[in-house]
Design goal:
The chain has 2 helices and no strands. It has 115 residues and is mostly helical. The chain is rod-shaped and about 130 Å long.
């Protein structure tokens, strides 16, 4: 018995393009073009939004740094104003005097108001 393999040559069948297939191709191309333009617009929108957000973040960081510097300066000024050396000067400016002798008032227990 002889084993033989029959090899069949593929034939290229050329069909004429019908109108329905051309119409479907046009719709596909239009939808694909619309999708490409939509994605391009969306990409441009995202890049614009990202750029503006980065600008806002950098300006807020700069503002934060400026406020932090001002806060440190105010803390230093506050510590200098409230130091013990300045408190003596403030007391003299307000007319306070040094206390030489302290006397306490003794309150008798019977003279206090009771409920």
């Amino acid at each position: 018995m002889i084993n033989a393999i029959a090899i069949r040559q593929p034939y290229l069948i050329i069909k004429p393009l019908n109108l329905r297939w051309i119409f479907n191709l046009r719709i596909f191309i239009i939808l694909l073009s619309g999708l490409i333009f939509f994605l391009l617009f969306f990409y441009i929108f995202q890049v614009n939004k990202l750029t503006s957000d980065n600008y806002l973040i950098s300006s807020q960081e700069k503002t934060l740094a400026d406020i932090s510097k001002e806060n440190k300066a105010l803390e230093i000024d506050s510590n200098q104003v409230n130091s013990l050396a300045n408190i003596d000067n403030l007391a003299k400016n307000f007319g306070f005097e040094k206390v030489n002798k302290i006397t306490y008032v003794k309150v008798l227990e019977g003279s206090m108001a009771a409920k």
